[in-house]
Write a structure and sequence with these properties.
The chain is mainly α and about 200 residues long. The chain is about 65% helix and about 0% strand. It has eight helices and no strands. Helix 2 packs antiparallel against helix 3 and helix 7 crosses helix 8. The longest helix has 27 residues. The chain is globular and about 50 Å long. The chain starts with a helix and ends in a 14-residue tail after the last helix.
Length: about 200
């Protein structure tokens, strides 16, 4: 019920934003109403897909990510006018990924840190933890057709259930399942070379 109320309220603010109402107050009210769901999406993306950023030296917390994303959205919504709840949360998710990828790149570019007690170089892996394979997977996800990418983002990256994703997209849950299955199939085909080779002997 709370999620349904949030969806309805967010849509009302988006409708206001499309009219002649001054944008700044509406944008702030919109983000204030959506902050709980935005925080949930930030936590899901951060802890499931970028756990390295939560450890030293960055020690990123979901509320810190949320603050950065809200700043990004305040700027983006000066010009962007998402017409639906679906478009709004897609925009928010895009800025979450951009913020996390920027932080990951900044860690990659840092020189190896030195341990203060023994002046010993930090062990390899003191970066974002994103391997070349992970970067390629992220790039391939972005090449999925729009509908499949949108469902994959909501369900697999943002942690929504298929029913919740269906409510956001305004489609049936079976449609979400069909798009997700199709997206997973495309990913499997495009990333087939990343599968471990089958070393079992052939059956006579």
């Amino acid at each position: 019920m709370v999620e349904a109320n949030t969806t309805a309220a967010v849509q009302c603010y988006l409708d206001e934003l499309a009219g002649d109402t001054p944008a700044e107050p509406v944008v702030r009210a919109l983000l204030g109403r959506a902050v709980r769901r935005l925080n949930q999406l930030c936590a899901t993306l951060l802890y499931r897909h970028y756990p390295r950023l939560t450890r030293p030296p960055l020690n990123l917390q979901s509320n810190e990510l949320l603050g950065a994303v809200v700043e990004r959205l305040l700027k983006a919504l000066r010009e962007a006018r998402p017409a639906s709840v679906r478009e709004f949360f897609a925009l928010a998710a895009q800025h979450m990924r951009w913020e996390l990828n920027d932080l990951a790149r900044s860690l990659d570019e840092q020189p190896d840190m030195v341990a203060v007690d023994g002046l010993v170089p930090a062990p390899p892996g003191s970066d974002s933890g994103l391997s070349s394979e992970c970067r390629r997977i992220i790039a391939v996800i972005d090449t999925l057709p729009p509908e499949e990418r949108e469902v994959f983002d909501l369900v697999r990256l943002q942690g929504m259930t298929q029913v919740e994703a269906a409510a956001v997209l305004g489609v049936a849950a079976r449609t979400v399942k069909r798009r997700l299955d199709r997206g997973l199939l495309l990913l499997a085909e495009r990333l087939s070379d990343l599968r471990p080779s089958d070393t079992r002997p052939e059956t006579p």
